[in-house]
Structures are given as C-alpha cells and as structure tokens.
C-alpha cells in the first residue's frame, strides 16, 4: 500500500439544517406550522407576525352556512358553537351521585377514592386487598362500599371484570331471567365462540330460548363508561378544499391559523455593516427569506397534489368511495415531477374537503388490485364491497373468507383468502364462525 497525498473528486449530498427543516415543514399540519412560525419569530428580530382574523364563513365555505337558520351576520359568530357540548365528565357525575347516598362519611371517602381510580371503561383496576391497604381499612369494608358503588349510574360501573359487569346489568335489567346470569357466569366463552349446539345441550333449552338469551346479553354494555357518555365531537380543519363551481372543480388553499409573515425593516440598515450586529442581521435575514420560500413551496406542493387528485378522481368526487380509483403516492409523484417521499410528507397530517365530505388526504391513496378483464380496483373499493356482502349475508349461514374470495373472482377480481381475512380484520368484522346466529 502506497502512502501519500492524493486528490480525489467525489459527489455527496449534505443535509443542511435548512434542508431538514424544509422537509419537516412539508408534513406539518396548519396548527403545527403556525406554532413553528411563532417560534421562529421569537428568535428572529426581522420576522414580524400579523395574526389573521379567522373568517370562518370563508374558511368553511358558504355551503356550510346555507342550511343553518342561525344569524351569521355577527362577525364574532362561531359555527362550532352550534354543536352540542360534550356531556359532563363521567367521574364528576359519579362523585355527585355519591353525595346523595345514605352512607357514612368514611364510606363516602372510600367510594370517592375508588371512583377516582376507575379505568377508562369504568372498571376497578385494583384488587380489594390493595384498596384496603391504601386506605388502612378491612377488605370487608371495601367490598361493602363497592356493592353500593355498583348501584350507581351507569349500571355496571365499579365492576372488577367483564363477567361481574354483565352480571350487574343482567340482574338490574332482567331480574326475571335467572338463567341469563348463569350463562354469563359459566358459559360466556361458549357464547362468544357461537357454539350454539354445545351451549343448548348444557343448558337443556331450545334454540329459540338460547337465541333470546344471546340477544339479551348483546344488549348489555361491556364498557359502561363508553355507553354512558357520547364521544367528543372531532372537528376537522381542512388544509385544502375542492368545490364544483359551474361544472368545473376549483381548489382553495386554507391557512386560517397561520399568521402573515412580514419583514421588520427597523434593523435592516445594520445588514450592510461589518459589525457583529451586522453579521447577526444578515444571518437572520437569510433565515427570513428561507422561511418565506419554504412556506410558499409547501403551499405550491399541496395545491399541485390536489390538482393531480382532481384529474384522477372525478368519479370519486361525484359518487364517493365506491368509485375511488387506485392511486399510489408514486403515481402522483411522477405526475407532478416530485419524489415519492415528498408526496408522502406533503399529504401527512393534511385534511381535504371535497363535495362528498371532509377527511384525511392519505385516505385517497390506496393500492390497486388487477382484474381479470384488464380493469383495476382499489383496496378501498374492495373493502366497501366486502362490508356490503357481509351486511347482506344470511346470518344463519355466514360467508366464509374463501366464499367471499370466490365471489370477487366471479366478478373478475382475483383476491386471496388471506387478503380477505386481512381486510375483514381492518374493518373490525368477526370471522364467519363468530358471525353466525341461531334462529
């Protein structure tokens, strides 16, 4: 091996801090981008922000207000105020009920301690012994308080496990059905596995009686907290909208949360000096220019992606997800002349509003399954059709995964049984053996 000094010419890509931040900027949501800009403004004296007044009538579109009878002339009108507020906190509701019980002060303290430690489903996650140790009382005292707690609304709250939760509800709602509590206590696993014949023999009852018991159990709530409180309303703020105006689709980019970025010229005269202050101002001026450029590139990229979607998905925009064509990130990247990873980042955390609804942009990208006659179907179309088939099936003889795959094959789409099982699980649909009912 010869030692010495040699000249060598190489090419490599260096990821600068600004390049990394530009990439990160693409995948920010509107709110995240607003926070990012505000952070830069606190560090850069040349960045001056002007907060935008949120014109919700323009943001959501006139069609949003068309069906409302409320007065929208007030500039301070907020359409979100027309949405019913979430129910009172579950824990607070239970604590309020405790105040009306005829129990001692000590029992009140014990019960409130247990309520504050209930899990998200309304179950007691601790053993009686642990509660007794924490409060320095007897396990008998704990059990007595829990019995009283289980009398509160919603029925089933304060149970230690699923069987106890269902048993509490069965005794409360169906006191004249003692066999129901027996099935829950002894044969719940057989019932879950839909082993009707074995269960009928063990209980020595007819199919009609067994069917009635099964229907009663399915009417109970395994998670009392979830049954008692409505889920919080989720509000989607679209980053981009597609609307049909005079037969043509128009695209609108939304940035209601993003403040307007202006150049503060008060310190700009220092840029020409050779002092430390001048170097500082030149560096921050460069950062200001980069920020403006990155924000504009982000906007342009999202609009170009949306234009490509409109060109490819007009049937979907008119008729919904059943007409969603197969579309991959790579296809859009090739169409607008960008890298696939750029499209992936630009569509992350973005919400699109279309004539058929408002949803995450990534939902429009789906793989393709080739048909026998040269046609293609998207995975979303397959899932929707799969869901329809299962909803229409005879519940006494539900369709197996193989039969579902055979159905698609008859219609020109070859899909494996394993893929059917995968899609079914993604749709939270049980297997055919567990969908079977008795009649």
Question: Would you kindly provide a written description of the structure presented here, covering whatever features stand out?
Answer:
InterPro entries: RNA_pol_sigma_54, RNA_pol_sigma_54_core-bd, RNA_pol_sigma_54_DNA-bd, RpoN_core-bd_sf. 51% of the residues lie in helices and 8% in strands. The chain is α+β, with helices and mostly antiparallel strands and 439 residues long. It has three domains: 16-52 and 233-365, no CATH class; 90-228, RNA polymerase sigma-54 factor, core-binding domain (Arc Repressor Mutant, subunit A, Orthogonal Bundle), CATH 1.10.10; 368-435, Arc Repressor Mutant, subunit A (Orthogonal Bundle). The strands form three sheets. It has a four-stranded mixed β-sheet, with helices on one face. Strand 7 (368-370) and strand 8 form a beta hairpin. Helix 6 (105-116) packs across helix 8 (139-149), helix 7 (128-135) packs across helix 8 (139-149) and helix 9 runs antiparallel to helix 10 (178-186). The longest helix has 37 residues, at 276-312. The termini are far apart.
């Amino acid at each position: 091996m010869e030692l010495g000094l040699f000249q060598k010419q190489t090419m490599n890509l260096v990821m600068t801090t600004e390049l990394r931040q530009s990439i990160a900027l693409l995948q920010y949501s509107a709110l995240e981008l607003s926070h990012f800009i505000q952070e830069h403004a606190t560090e850069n004296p040349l960045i001056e922000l002007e907060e935008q007044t949120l014109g919700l009538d323009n943001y959501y579109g006139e069609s949003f207000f068309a069906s409302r009878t409320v007065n929208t002339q007030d500039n301070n009108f907020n359409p979100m105020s027309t949405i019913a507020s979430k129910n009172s906190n579950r824990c607070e509701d239970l604590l309020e009920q405790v105040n009306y019980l005829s129990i001692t002060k000590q029992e009140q303290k014990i019960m409130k301690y247990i309520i504050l430690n209930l899990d998200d489903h309304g179950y007691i996650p601790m053993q009686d012994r642990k509660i007794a140790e924490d409060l320095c009382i007897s396990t008998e005292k704990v059990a007595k308080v829990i019995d009283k707690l289980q009398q509160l609304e919603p029925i089933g709250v304060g149970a230690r496990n699923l069987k106890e939760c269902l048993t509490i509800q069965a005794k409360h709602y169906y006191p004249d059905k003692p066999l129901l509590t027996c099935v829950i206590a002894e044969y719940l696993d057989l019932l879950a596995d839909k082993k009707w014949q074995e269960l009928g023999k063990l209980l020595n009852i007819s199919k009609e009686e067994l069917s009635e018991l099964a229907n009663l159990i399915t009417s109970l709530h395994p998670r009392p907290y979830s049954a008692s409180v409505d889920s919080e309303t989720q509000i989607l703020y679209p980053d981009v909208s597609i609307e049909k105006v005079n037969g043509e689709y128009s695209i609108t980019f939304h940035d209601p949360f993003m403040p307007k970025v202006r150049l503060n010229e008060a310190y700009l005269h220092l840029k020409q000096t050779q002092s430390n202050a001048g170097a500082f101002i030149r560096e921050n001026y460069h950062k200001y220019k980069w920020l403006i450029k990155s924000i504009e590139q982000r906007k342009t990229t999202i609009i170009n992606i949306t234009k490509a979607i409109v060109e490819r998905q007009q049937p979907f925009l008119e008729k919904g997800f059943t007409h969603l064509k197969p579309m991959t990130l790579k296809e859009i990247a090739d169409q607008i002349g960008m890298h696939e990873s750029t499209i992936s980042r630009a569509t992350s955390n973005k919400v699109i509003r279309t004539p058929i609804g408002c949803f995450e942009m990534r939902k429009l990208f789906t793989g393709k399954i080739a048909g026998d006659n040269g046609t293609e179907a998207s995975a979303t179309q397959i899932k929707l059709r799969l869901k329809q088939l299962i909803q229409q099936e005879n519940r006494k003889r539900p369709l197996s995964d193989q039969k579902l795959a055979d159905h698609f094959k008859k219609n020109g789409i070859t899909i494996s049984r394993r893929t059917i099982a995968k899609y079914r699980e993604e749709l939270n649909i049980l297997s055919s053996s567990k969908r079977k009912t008795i009649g």
